[in-house]
Amino acid sequence: QVQLVESGGGLVQPGGSLRLSCVASGNVNAIYATGWYRQAPGKQRELVAAITNVGSTNYAGSVKGRFTISRDNSKNTVYLQMNNLRPEDTAVYYCNAPQPDPSGDYWGQGTQVTVSS
Fold first, then answer.
1. Cα separation, 54 vs 95, whole angstroms
2. Where are the beta strands (DSSP E) in the chain?
3. What are the angstrom distances between the C-alpha of 61 and each of 7, 47, 75?
4. Distance CA 51, CA 58 (A)
5. Tens digit of each residue's pLDDT (9 = 90 or more) over 76-91
6. What is the model's pLDDT at position 54?
7. What is the rounded CA–CA span in Å between residue 82 and residue 74?
8. Could you report the per-residue pLDDT of 51-107, keeping only the tens digit for each?
9. How far is CA 54 from the centre of its chain?
10. Which phi and psi (to 5°) does residue 103 adopt?
11. Where are the alpha helices (DSSP H) in the chain?
């Protein structure tokens, strides 16, 4: 079993920055990749960034160049550095550890990011 806990969300003005953290506990060996998803009001959940155990990363086009995903294996933590935030980045951000069966994916509780002037 894996537990994921996100933190770091908050209210920022457009152009501001936040760093989200996802701390994993439990059977961390079951985690081969980690993704950050977000769900904005009235929108579908979308993948914004992902990182594998070997360090490969990918990003949604809307965040490429602004967001950076990274990991610190010694702390069992994945980060999402978000720069130049825009109002359309407003969403609940979730940490995800995929499993071979998607129904078995591990999810955090989410952290709210609000970008507003």
1. 18
2. 2-7, 10-12, 18-26, 33-39, 46-52, 57-59, 67-72, 77-82, 91-97, 106-107, 111-115
3. 24, 10, 29
4. 7
5. 999 999 999 999 999 9
6. 87
7. 22
8. 998 889 999 999 999 999 999 989 999 999 999 999 999 999 999 999 888 899 999
9. 17
10. -65, -15
11. none
